[in-house]
């Protein structure tokens, strides 16, 4: 029903990357001098780590260095003799005297240098990890239910931390956005001492998969009544024009060499696209974008173009789904997946109730859902979690079922950025909340804030050309 995989990947690259944040104060002159001898040969040190291969070093603005690496991982951490695979990750090296951010994407890893918000807040190194089973980080003959679990992935991250801590011996902070934020919490649950704090952005937590009424309530309250009515109306009109628009969709697919084998047909893919437009709208648009929602009297061209803009024609094709099958498998196996009732579309849908994660994976993959997996995570957060910081967007549907702090959660914070979407971050909070959250992250990392922020060419505090340009471009695209 929703482009969860595609959209969360975008979020992993955009959430927490707003450039308007202060950079933490640099380490003392003595500690920097002590680190300089090893910093000059950091590539040699990386290449000497057993199991790690330096695949590429890309030029990046000084004093940073940027590497694409891989680490040899067991395909099954419970059975080391079952074989290995190469897991890809990147390193933005700032200095061995600086703290390090473990950035879990939950999906593929970008092959370019960027800084997440926590990395800028602490002026640190950043390790960004590709989730197992996302190509090319996939075993040759994968055993999905045995090998693609939240514990197996957490153990991947644990081994990366263990391999690199001898080099990066200062404090560590983990972070991630959306599915990447979920992944960072799973890692903490199984290996709570690997890092000194975790910042999870817009991370959903579906504790009881069959109970999704929170999402239905969200869609009756988000935005204005007029905007909600406009979104309902364009969905209804699109399904009323199903014959015309599905024919157009099939013609578009044929022309662009796209197929619908996984979802089943152009008709089913079209309905799932229409189902997901309201979710997609609130995930990445602002309330001001309601003015651009086509009226029921709009031309078919206008409705077609809006569907493509908000949801994406390619999203439900085999080619669009292929790279995200590991996510849809995880959602069907352990993570859970939202089921929104869409009562206004009842009577117009041909496949009501079928728009679930299982519809986006090949038929030969049949995951057996584990209902206790997320309950275990929930109990850990509420009764044993510590140094956790959660940030949500007030208008983001994924925040309808969030992680919650509990009676025994220690030294942790939880925030909602009013009016924000899936791009919510610390900088989007109220000023006093931003200050409190920033202070916690810097305290966990063992650094202090500068007396005054320095402004780069962009006019944003702490901005570094060549590193934060990607973030700014992505923020403009998804948070226009």
UniProtKB/TrEMBL annotation:
InterPro entries: AB_hydrolase_fold (IPR029058), Peptidase_S37 (IPR008761)
Pfam families assigned: Peptidase_S37
GO molecular function: aminopeptidase activity; dipeptidyl-peptidase activity
Segments passing through the bilayer: none
Signal peptide start-end: 1-24
Recorded superkingdom: Bacteria
Annotated protein name in UniProt: Tripeptidyl aminopeptidase
Organism: Dactylosporangium matsuzakiense
